[in-house]
Design a protein that fits this description.
Distance between the termini: 23 Å
Largest sheet: 7 strands, parallel
Structural class: alpha/beta
Shape: globular
Number of strands: 7
Number of domains: 1
CATH superfamily: SPOUT methyltransferase, trefoil knot domain
Radius of gyration: 15 Å
Oligomer: single chain
Length: 178
Amino acid sequence: MLRMPITRAAAFVLVRPHYPENVGAAARAMKTMGITDLILVKPSKLAVPEHEMARKMAVKSLDVLDGARRTTTLAEALATCDFAFATTSRRGVSGVIAPRHAAVLTLERTARGEKVAFVFGNEKTGLAPDDVERCNRRVRIPMAAEQPSINLAQAVQLVAYELFLAGLEARNAEPKAG
């Protein structure tokens, strides 16, 4: 298994998640890409690591699920982070970048020892405007269809994948000692 420096310095924050299946699937998506820092901000009564469906969806990722920190506010969740990306599916938001660009920026920041967070909103409503404003940059996953958004766990997987790829590319670009 490859370990990337980026994965130790990145946190994934789920704000007011509603479905336990998404919390479990997000933990699995993170773990497959080597990311283990999961923070749940004010989850619904069902969207908790103890829920049977969350545990069922977190295949081989119970360590991530059980290690998830819970907070009551996004400010509390981001207190240990130096920089945060808000994910959004809304069109017309200024300054939005793609996950690939965010991954490259994350590599630069984590190389300086910074902790970076990716913030994901509720499955039904996304992030509140004040939550988006609390973050430094916005990330939007490009989509071909007029679908308004993708599933929360799928969004987590795509962002985690881009972080993993960026880490691999940076590692492969390093000169080999010899």
